[in-house]
Design brief:
single chain, alpha/beta, Aspartate Aminotransferase, domain 2, 14 helices, 16 strands, globular
């Protein structure tokens, strides 16, 4: 039976004896010292002491529909009474229904889909799919991109510090510069730069390809890397570069897909349809299921070359039923439109705050995926590392669950590049809840800006 009254001392006891430790300076460090959650509903989570928090992270960014969405819960309950797990050597009705629901959402020529369990699963499968379809090897990914946490991804398509924790990087993977206009990696400015970051990266990549190149992978908006929105035209330039080299374009839509950015898919803002798309996070409405989508032609070529990807629970009826319910909620409740309206309200409130508080250096993002760059000096763009930690703690004390810090960094103090405040609120967040969030942030920004002890 769940202990809904567990206190911090009991949590510490269990963590010390039974939990695998986490790196203290990572974003998961010191978990046992944080509130212990007992329940959640909608945009609210409740700890074991009865305190409520507005969940401005949507769980682990997987509850964008809100916690325990009624459609998803009904689908899961029905599945638990009829059909939870099934062999993947036979089809089942929920799986077929999910293929059809998702297929009708896809932007042509995307058509075919396969189901897996986690976001990391989809990235490894997408990379293999691209390699099998092209006969190539080399994969290029943005250097601020994060695409999962398996050993392979940590050694290839992740932040530099994660790659450096391994003895060697994965063969056939290279990083290219992130088009981060606020912290330009080539000390230029858009649009006069004409995507110099991309041109320089491709010139170096061309000189270092070990074999035929296979694909470029990117998030339409880099989430964990700092809520970075590439400038207009960037992905058109990437698409042209791919076509010139016979490479495929993979979009990781884990944190941007299915309505989060105000469009059904993040790539629709730029009008560049990928060859392969990965979906996860809130695809199952909080239940773990993910998908890889591609064209009929690419799927045929890849399978003919030996492509195969599955997991023991990849097409479980319960997971697929949750996926169907999630898509139905997103479409029928107009959640993409809601995300766009949340963006307008939040950016307006944040822009007013930025007029008063020098701490806010930049406001960016789309839909419910929004971020602030926190600085101590707007001209020099000096990262507000200490202030960010204070903001996060004060938000939690006030009942607002958010993430701040350098991109998944190991140390706020050592970060030279930027400190972000990231929000991914549920798409069903009400106007009154948004107003409450704005008020909290305004008070916290005021307190942090005037608090000399932070400096």
């Amino acid at each position: 039976m769940q202990d809904d009254n567990m206190d911090q001392a009991r949590a510490q006891e269990i963590a010390d004896r039974w939990m695998m430790p986490t790196e203290e300076s990572s974003y998961m460090g010191g978990l046992e010292k944080r509130p212990i959650l007992a329940s959640a509903s909608g945009s609210t989570v409740v700890d074991t002491q009865g305190k409520e928090y507005l969940d401005f992270q949507s769980g682990q960014m997987g509850a964008a529909l809100g916690h325990r969405h009624p459609r998803v819960m009904a689908a899961v309950r029905k599945a638990t009474e009829t059909f939870v797990h099934a062999s993947n050597i036979m089809l089942n009705v929920p799986r077929l229904e999910l293929h059809e629901r998702l297929g009708k959402l896809l932007v042509p020529p995307l058509q075919k889909s396969l189901f897996l369990v986690t976001g990391s699963d989809t990235i490894e499968a997408s990379v293999d799919l691209a390699r099998k379809a092209t006969g190539g090897l080399d994969i290029l990914g943005l250097h601020d991109g994060l695409h999962g946490s398996t050993s392979y991804i940590s050694r290839s398509l992740s932040f530099a510090w994660k790659r450096q924790q391994h003895a060697s990087i994965a063969p056939g993977t290279s990083a290219i510069l992130t088009p981060h206009c606020y912290q330009c990696p080539v000390a230029s400015s858009f649009p006069k730069c004409e995507f110099l970051c991309l041109k320089a990266s491709l010139e170096l990549a061309d000189a270092n390809f070990t074999s035929r190149p296979a694909a470029v992978i990117a998030e339409p908006i880099l989430s964990a890397g700092g809520v970075i929105v590439p400038p207009p035209g960037y992905f058109q330039a990437v698409r042209r570069a791919c076509e010139e080299r016979g490479m495929l374009l993979i979009f990781d839509e884990a944190q941007t897909g299915l309505g989060k950015t105000g469009q059904m898919f993040g790539f629709q803002h730029e009008g560049v349809v990928p060859d392969i798309m990965a979906l996860s996070k809130h695809f199952g409405g909080g239940v773990p299921i993910s998908a890889v989508c591609t064209t009929a032609e690419i799927a045929k070529r890849a399978v003919a070359s030996g492509f195969f990807a599955t997991r023991s629970h990849a097409a479980d009826p319960m997971l697929c039923a949750a996926g169907v319910a999630s898509i139905d909620a997103i479409v029928e409740e107009g959640l993409a439109g809601r995300a766009a309206r949340i963006e307008l309200r939040m950016k307006s409130a944040l822009a007013e705050m930025a007029k008063r508080y020098e701490l806010i250096g930049d406001i960016r993002g789309r839909g419910v995926l929004l971020g602030l760059e926190l600085v101590t000096d707007r001209e020099q763009k000096t990262p507000a590392n200490k202030e960010a930690a204070v903001v996060e703690n004060r938000c939690l004390e006030a009942g607002l669950s958010v993430v701040t810090g350098p991109p998944m960094t190991r140390s706020r103090q050592a970060n030279p590049r930027g400190t972000q405040f990231e929000g991914q609120c549920p798409q069903l967040l009400t106007p009154s809840a948004l107003a409450c969030v704005s008020s909290m942030l305004r008070l916290i920004a005021f307190d942090t800006s005037r608090d000399a002890s932070v400096a």
